[in-house]
Amino acid sequence: MEIEVTRLVEVVITASPPPTPVPSPTSEIDPTAYLAAANMSPDDLPTGDAGLVVIAAGFPSNFGVIPVVVRNNTDAPIYNLEISATARSADGSVLGTASGRNIAPGYVPPGGIAFGRVLFQDAPLDGATIEYLITGDDSAGTIFTHRDMEISEHNLVGGSVVGSLLNSNPTALDLINVAVICFDDTLTPTTARDDYTDQDRVEAGAEVPFSVDLLGDEAQCGRYLLAGGGWEAD
Asked: For the residues of 126-177, what is the DSSP string, one character each?
């Protein structure tokens, strides 16, 4: 006689513990090191509305150049701001368009600012209303990447803002450009200038001197903001 034996196996299922959340990496970016000020603070400037907004703009120069300051009133950092501008007459007609030049610094944290200028060239701007469109990237990018540099020292000497920058990035940088925007006592921008350093390349951890010629506008530069950076070389 054959006997069939059936074995009962009790299977106990134990729920796996939930995965431990991985903390977000701490940003090594110190935006306060990338923006220097003389006789003022970025916090002295208007807060502005929500979004990416122009919070201060100067009067057009004879060449249609308007110095501007932008604040990032979003909840995320923005990289590599771009500015487009449209000038309109009193009846709403378009008088001309412009694009931004040398917007710095490249990294703008929430609540932070960047500055530069827009160039209208020959557009008639007397009595015009200027509309601004500002965009940016959510990352620094992977190719042709711009990196900000720390400002070690700076001073207004004669007709130039001079000083030195520190490349605290892990790679060498090329084409180092330094930008300055000046303000009057009411914190209205008066002029914006930029210049390249004499040295085309600066290694990681090294410093480079700079000089930005104000082209005769030093009397308008009792207060200023300063930023500089370059492009990844390797």
From this structure: TT-EEEEEEEEESS--SSS-EEE-EEEEEEEETTEEEEEEE--SSS-EEEEE
Q: Which of 137, 144, 113, 105 is nearest to 229 (CA)?
A: 105
- The residue type of 150 is E
Residue 3 amino acid letter: I
- CA-based nearest residue to 135, from 98, 67, 81, 73: 81
Taking the C-alpha atoms of residue 83 and residue 97, their distance in angstroms, rounded to an integer, is 11
Secondary structure class of 107 (helix, strand, coil): strand
CA distance 82 to 117: 11
pLDDT of 138 reads 87
Structure confidence by residue, pLDDT tens digits, 108-138: 999 999 999 999 988 888 889 999 999 999 8
pTM (2 d.p.) = 0.85
Contact between 114 and 101 (Cβ < 8 Å): no
